[in-house]
Amino acid sequence: MHFVRKWITLCSKKRVEEFERPKLFKNLLRGKSQRQHPQGKAKIKLHNANMQRKEFTTSSLFLYLSSLCLILKLSFSPLMTSFVIRFVMKIHIFILISLTFSDYGFLHGVTSLGISYGQVGNNLPPPEKVLGLLDSLKITKVRIYDTNPQILTAFANSNVELIVTVENQMLAVLMDPQQAYQWVNTHIKPYFPSTNITEIAVGNEVFTGDDTTLVGYLVPATVSIHDALVQLGLDKYVQVSTPHSLAVLEESYPPSAGSFKSEVAVVMSQYLQFLSSTKAPFWINAYPYFAYKDDPSGISLDYALFNPNAGMVDPYTKLRYDNMLYAQVDAAIFALARMGYGNIEVKVSETGWPSKGDPNEVGATLENAAMYNRNLLRRQLGSEGTPLRPSMGLDVYMFALFNEDLKPGPTSERNYGLYQPDGTMCYNVGLSALSSSTSTSSASISFTSSATKGAEREYQSLVFCMFLYLLTFQVFRRRPY
């Protein structure tokens, strides 16, 4: 049964584990973990994920057809007992279920798009109006940067899945298990499950912030919060993680060179152990804009904006990247694998492009912001994965819902929003296509086109699975036993 569970996982799981292919079936049969070698050992052998899943799915299809033929042959053989035939039939049904969850099947994970709802402004609409805006845009995943009780109350009994945040300045206090319990009991339990709080972000970009003392607080505070969730019976519903800046990586180009900075390695290893044990995701705030701004002559703007371009090929994996965001995500996956945690899912907790900036902020224009977010939406609606994990949809939270007039820093920091505080649209990225069929903008047209393609793929998968089930039914109906 252990082997059966492993096989179903490989056929249905929308992620690609980093392992050596020659050892795959040995590890499955022996029940070994598919974690990577620790950092400093031999090279991590990551293979083309797309080919891997195709091989597994094709193998399942071959086994399905073979078992079908075997059932037909055995059914009409006078030497075969009904027990043997029933045994082969059980194997056949198991393979059919595996195919249902595979690339040929229709039970795929759905890529989700969320949005960051910041509140650093003195002119923002009340949460009730924000919820109405989100409903009109059909956005069901939201990240906030605190536990604002007004938002938690306003979002009750809605279809919004909410990520709340523990502010960085609270980490030292929440190292104490009693304080963590009190925090969860005050800020989470009274609102759950009416308000669908799904994740708690413990701090934000702690490893790369100005206050280096926070790094030592992160793991104890995270563990204490999770333990409090366990005590209150909420750990099955609410995950705990922390968003990281891409600056935690020592190398990110090419993606296969992805690795963490040595100064964060010790604490990062402890944190990854926690994520692995709780099956929580690794979050990154990934901004191709910053890379382009720092090196506009060396980085193609089209590559940063998801526009058609020559792209780049990773010299080690031979995987082709046509946009920077996916390259950044895969670099994080490689970094995790080098630490021995290639099985952890990576999610993008923030990404966006400013519509306005200071004179020295190259690329911060309304046109580029609209193009980046529009193309990102198109990719998300197509349920795309990265080149390393093509069959695993990538969860992304777009930054941000509103321009926030009180944010410190350069002009760009106050101009990441899709909307002005009064609710007027800064630029149309195609979200209106979800709520209105009358829009004729190019954004809405391309967005709807991508939706149609995604629906067509799901329909084809459904027809394929219906054919397999019908074929199986006909064979079983006609058998003499």
From TrEMBL:
Transmembrane segments: 61-80
EC category: hydrolase
The enzyme's E.C. designation: 3.2.1.39
Entry keywords, A to Z: Glycosidase, Hydrolase, Membrane, Signal, Transmembrane, Transmembrane helix
Catalytic activity: Hydrolysis of (1->3)-beta-D-glucosidic linkages in (1->3)-beta-D-glucans
UniProt similarity note: Belongs to the glycosyl hydrolase 17 family.
Protein name according to UniProt: glucan endo-1,3-beta-D-glucosidase
